[in-house]
Amino acid sequence: MKNRLLFGMFLITWMTASGLALGEESFRLEDRIVEYTLPNGMKFLLLRRTGTPVFSANIMFRVGGVDERPGITGLAHFYEHMAFKGTKTIGVKDYEQEQLLLAEIDKVAVQLTDEIAKGDRANQAKIAELQTKVKELETQGRKFVVKDELWDTYVRNGASGLNASTGKDMTQYYVSLPANRLELWAWLESDRLLNPVLREFYSERDVVCEEHRLGIETQPSGRLEQDFLATAFLAHPARYSVLGWMSDLQTVTRPQAQEFGRSHYVPANAAVALVGDLDIGDCTQTVTRYFGRLPAHPLPPPVTTQEPEQRGERRVVVEWDAQPQLLIGYHKPSPLHADGPVLDVIEGVLSEGRTSRLYKTLVQDRRLAAAVGAFSMPTDRYPNLFTVWAMPLHPHTTREVEQGVYKVLETLITQPPSEEELQKIRNNVRARLVRALESNRGLARELSYYQTVYGDWRYALKRVEMIERVTADDVRRVAQKYFVPTNRTIGEIVKTVTPQKKGK
Description:
The protein has 504 residues and is an alpha+beta fold. The protein folds into three domains: 33-90 and 146-306, Cytochrome Bc1 Complex, Chain A, domain 1; 93-144; 314-495, CATH 3.30.830.10. 47% of the residues lie in helices and 16% in strands. The chain contains 18 helices and eleven strands. It has helices at 2-17, 75-82, 95-116, 124-141, 149-156, 182-194, 201-217, 220-232, 246-251, 254-264, 280-291, 340-351, 357-365, 398-414, 419-435, 440-454, 459-468, 472-482; strands spanning 34-37, 43-48, 54-61, 160-166, 171-178, 270-276, 314-320, 325-332, 369-377, 384-392, 488-495. A hairpin with a 4-residue loop joins strand 4 (160-166) and strand 5.
């Protein structure tokens, strides 16, 4: 709930701080944000905020882990890495010669993938030979590379907050720059969309595989989340970790990544927010000049697979010599569903602050858990999970905490939230917003997020209004509907003790 509500309340509080009355039609926020769509379908949200001669830019694509399939899981995140490797003109000394070598690398890499796919029938000597060949060719290719030229160009021109990230629903690229560097930003970003070159692909693949090892294979909480999602979702691609499956990462090829980029990194699949000390007229001319060069392309196909109704409790156990942890997830609809705001309120009632029901009961009163929380995961574009996470307090077990969670959930039905509890949620949302004021970067991020994931940035305000209308009866009804045993999946880390070696 926090991420979605934060932006809506940020807009309301920003309007108040700017002397704008929320109910005054003449000062509606829609009149201050300029929406500009290029003929190729690329959408820009422009907001002028004076005071400091800087601006923040956020380019967000509607592509993430939910857009993957078996064989290419983890590719959305991997492609984000590759987007920093440069273009035909950035990060290279001689692209014509490099292109010939890249084609040879691809040829050998595809042969390697085909051999690995043979499984037990694979020729291990041939695999080793092809792996060595790929590394040798990539080493040769480094003579054409200007290392990190895209990144360094940004830094030399005063960039701050330069980075990117990938989630289940989207991939974003963001930076803040001096106001007089708008044209530089437009050239760099449009060029990496128009002329991407996924150079150093296979060496970067090793980097992504190592990230997988650190985030999942050697991290108990990462492994728990991976196995939990794979158990809760049987059909929908929400079941895949953003980092993907290791076997897919180890065999994905540059041609596959190029096709993924051509399909998803298209103008109509992006929302761009620019917030700061900008002249809107100059801004529209600049983005037209550079991003207008991108050819129109059909949108990627939507995910049509629907998760079948769960008809029985599921459980997954991860044995690890680590602190026990617990995840309990209940299937629920996407945030656009009418029950979405009610579930957001329930999330706040259960886990927001030290007076929240989960914390007060399990941590403070009964001392069953050291920490506890509730949140939605892993996607906002599609139906997802209402999830409770907890870490037992020694010597209590995950099973004891699990039963404690169920009792707290039952109170939503037997003792629905009071008006005081509901008002606390509303007040906390507004308080968080005040603390987040005056951030061009944050506002740019949230504008592009709501436009990308929900299809309209205005939905942030609409959702806040819906939250305000949630009643205790709504909470009781929704809790009865979703928090039932047949609809839940439980994941737990059970501590295993490594046997001690006997002394001599």
